[in-house]
Prior knowledge:
Shape: globular
Radius of gyration: 18 Å
Oligomer: single chain
Distance between the termini: 29 Å
Helix content: 40-55%
Strand content: 5-15%
Number of helices: 9
Amino acid sequence: MPTPRIRTVLLALTLVAVPTASVAHAAAEPPAASPAAAPATSPVFGSAVAAATGLDDPAKKDIAMRIVSSAENSSLDWKAQYGYIEDIGDGRGYTAGIIGFCSGTGDMLDLVELYTQRKPGNPLAAYLPALREVDGTDSHDGLDPGFTAAWKQAAKDSAFKTAQNDERDRVYFNPAVNRGKQDGLGTLGQFAYYDAIVMHGDGGDSTSFGNIRKRALAKAKTPAQGGNQTTYLHAFLDARVWAMKQEEAHEDTSRVDTAQRVFLDKGNLNLDPPLDWKVYGDSFHIG
Length: 287
């Protein structure tokens, strides 16, 4: 990541296809764990789950993954994306996996290193030297012609899927949710942060998540600062749209304008279903 996948952040929701929209029906949220109870193990993420109250609630996390996947892959079926890989021509080399790990931005290298630590001799291990060489560029040197096939082969391995989940959480999801909670934001605000980090990363450039947030703070206070949440989120989404328009590959802002802004205008700060939105002209629904 970060890059769009026109394209780079989870419980049982059933996807139902209809002629004009993609539809998912969310299962009821599990009851919150007692404060004295041991952390539950999520059947989706395979890790301990505390008594989550925001986007880190497993049901809301699944919704987040589906909304991001609608923009990244034009599909609500995020679990079908572990084997996705292509060069989308955005200057970041290969984009791949559930969150758009990129060969040119370092997160793909980190992912393959983690996978190899856990499972030496995997199909991607031999490409680590090449991934180190192309980091920071859009080059395929040392990757072609076999890397895409190796990625798809690795994606059949549960250990690689787990590594993708873990790196998504470490690099994108957890930092976004934590920052959102510190700013006093609800589930929708935490999602807005997550989607921004997925696309823009959290580096030092002017369009990174941190600088998008600073741009918003110049216009409005966060709830933690005594500001109004809706007012602040509009300022954040305005800053996000500005950042997207600075780069040709991100100039379609529908993932904000006809998705997140729609939820905000409806006052759905908790990101509760039913949800209806459009991305790149495609309609989606979570019920």
